[in-house]
Write a structure and sequence with these properties.
- 22% of the residues lie in helices and 13% in strands.
- By secondary structure, it is an alpha+beta fold.
- It has a domain of 47 residues.
- The chain has a two-stranded parallel sheet with strand order 1-2.
- The longest helix is centred in the middle third of the chain and has 10 residues.
- 3% of the residues are buried.
């Protein structure tokens, strides 16, 4: 297919949860939509340690917020 992507496609990605933990942070992952709320709620309970959240999604998924190509950050699309 002739699709254009604005990201970098990495065939192998790091385990962001373990990477966060290696730096003394808390790492949380949501692997499916039903996990998102629980991960967000858990992250909001943590007050004294940085939290890295890894949201796993399909490459074709429209993820918001997004900034259109060539636009500035104040032109972010929320929905």
């Amino acid at each position: 297919m002739n699709k254009k992507y604005s990201d970098t496609c990495l065939e192998v990605q790091p385990d962001f949860v373990k990477l966060a933990e290696a730096y003394g942070c808390i790492g949380l992952r949501a692997e499916k939509p039903s996990d998102v709320e629980a991960v967000l709620r858990e992250s909001l309970k943590i007050k004294d340690i940085p939290v890295v959240m890894d949201f796993v999604c399909d490459r074709e998924e429209n993820v918001y917020p997004m900034v259109p190509a060539g636009a500035s950050i104040d032109e972010m699309i929320i929905r």
